[in-house]
Amino acid sequence: MALLFGIGGLIVFLLWPYHKYTFRFDPEELLHHYVDGDRPLKISAMQRALALRIKADMASNWRIIQRLRVALQIALVLLLFDILAWLFAIAGV
Length: 93
Hints:
Layout: H1 2-15, H2 27-35, H3 43-91
Helix pairs in contact: 1-3
């Protein structure tokens, strides 16, 4: 039973809505910052700035993804132990 509760807790952790991912661009913010500002940027400078922002977002999201990956691996190990426990219980009957 403890294994099932452990798996259930990890599933809740994995499926809980998480809103700190960073991968969105607000078009209004982009236009204000890169086009409509005091000094509009050239396309190459805009592409460079956006590429650096995407890289920073990837690094930020990577920490979140790693935590979820570890939780999924622990849940898998607990599931395997749970299956083994059931097999031993059935074989012992």
